[in-house]
């Protein structure tokens, strides 16, 4: 099961009224800042989990799909850092797409059936943060 950070770290409501804060976190995630990724995860995990669980129903499959959603966000964050990006919309969109793919028999197999667990990979990413990469465009 995916470990959660203490609820005092970030509350989604802090970010809802300020989408620019989510975008700031996403830009840090794009620079491989795992601490920022953890904050983004804490902020959006309730929405992602709700979307996926409502669509799939099965707790285990829903947890794996939610984890895969965040891994995809981690891997492609650098493609979605333009000004005005709706970070919550983008990530919940990934969740909805991945949950919908579970209805397709060609993509229905559980990732852990093949020995891969997005949830374990996500746990490792959240539990063992590495320092952020320094941007080549940053001075100083």
Short synopsis of the structure:
The chain is mainly alpha-helical. The chain contains 6 helices and no strands.
Ends apart, CA distance between termini: 41 Å
The description of the largest β-sheet is: none
Average pLDDT, rounded to a whole number, is 78
- Which stretches of 5+ consecutive residues score pLDDT under 50? 1-10, 109-113, 136-140
What is the share of helical residues? 55-70%
Shape: globular
Molecular structure report:
The protein is globular, with a radius of gyration of 15 Å. It is mainly alpha-helical and 140 residues long. 31% of the residues are buried. The protein has one domain: Rna Polymerase Sigma Factor, Chain: A, CATH 1.10.1740. Helix 3 (34-56) runs antiparallel to helix 4 and helix 4 (59-76) packs across helix 5. It contains six helices and no strands. It has helices at 12-16, 19-30, 34-56, 59-76, 87-101, 118-127. The termini are far apart. It is 59% helix and 0% strand.
């Amino acid at each position: 099961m995916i470990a959660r950070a203490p609820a005092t770290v970030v509350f989604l409501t802090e970010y809802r009224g300020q989408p620019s804060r989510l975008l700031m976190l996403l830009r840090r995630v794009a620079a491989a800042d795992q601490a920022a990724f953890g904050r983004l995860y804490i902020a959006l995990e309730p929405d992602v989990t709700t979307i996926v669980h409502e669509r799939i129903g099965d707790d285990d499959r829903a947890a794996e799909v939610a984890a895969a959603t965040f891994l995809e966000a981690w891997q492609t964050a650098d493609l979605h850092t333009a000004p005005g990006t709706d970070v919550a919309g983008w990530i919940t969109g990934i969740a909805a797409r991945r949950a919908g793919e579970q209805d397709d028999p060609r993509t229905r197999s559980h990732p852990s059936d093949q020995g891969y667990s997005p949830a374990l990979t996500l746990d490792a990413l959240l539990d063992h943060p590495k320092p952020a990469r320094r941007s080549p465009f940053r001075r100083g």
